[in-house]
Specification:
alpha+beta, five-stranded mixed β-sheet, 9 strands, 205 residues, binds zinc ion, 21% helix
């Protein structure tokens, strides 16, 4: 176990067998340029926690940028010898419930099963269970590639599992913070009832 300068724990698999070629893999971020051929040769595994905020396109789909994306992937080859990147990404994030329009916490799990090919012509020879990524030079942007996978698994219409109610007609989606609820309770306001309902719901999360 090691600690990065920011105090967050990161570590690699106990069964780590590969060589680490890139210093960037050792911090809380994913490198933009890695040579997948070299990493596959050594069977490099990457287990790292990356702040959600570092994935800007992914963050735009969320209520806030809090939390971490746990990256758990390995470079290797499939049975036909093609280079692969496999594993899983997971993150606990906040989305807007499409029924009550309050924020809700949800777990995103994105399986990663990519074949990394030097040319499109090889794609038909790869097992169908892999998604294809073309990287002619052998260099990939690991950060961008994994962010694409994360985005694919953001639910389109997330809803609370427990019962929640449609917002009052005409009400706008409101993010409830302590400030908001204080403001609501300090002066008579037709939305007071809504605010207390929102508080109740958010406590249930
Ligand atoms: Zn809801």
């Amino acid at each position: 176990m090691n600690r990065s300068s920011s105090g967050e724990v990161w570590h690699y698999f106990d069964s780590f067998v590969g060589q680490l070629y890139y210093p960037a893999l050792m911090s809380n971020q994913l490198p933009k340029r890695v040579n997948y051929i070299a990493l596959a040769k050594s069977g490099t595994k990457i287990q790292v926690k990356v702040p959600v905020a570092q994935f800007t396109r992914f963050s735009e789909l969320l209520v806030n940028t809090q939390g971490w994306v746990e990256v758990n992937v390995q470079f290797g080859r499939d049975s036909a010898g093609f280079h692969t990147l496999t594993g899983e990404l997971s993150a606990e994030v906040s989305l807007i419930c499409q029924r009550c329009l309050n924020s809700m916490s949800t777990q995103i799990r994105a399986p990663v099963r990519l074949a990394l090919l030097p040319s499109e012509g090889l794609a038909t020879r790869v097992a169908e269970s892999f998604d294809i990524e073309i990287a002619e030079t052998g260099v990939i942007d690991l950060h961008e590639m994994l962010e694409n996978e994360l985005i694919l698994f953001v639910p389109i219409a997330p809803m609370h599992e427990e019962e929640c109610e449609l917002p009052i007609e005409g009400a706008q989606p409101v993010e409830v913070s302590m400030e908001d609820s204080e403001e609501f309770s300090n002066k008579p306001n037709p939305f007071v009832k809504l605010a207390s309902l929102k508080q109740k719901l958010s406590k249930k999360e």
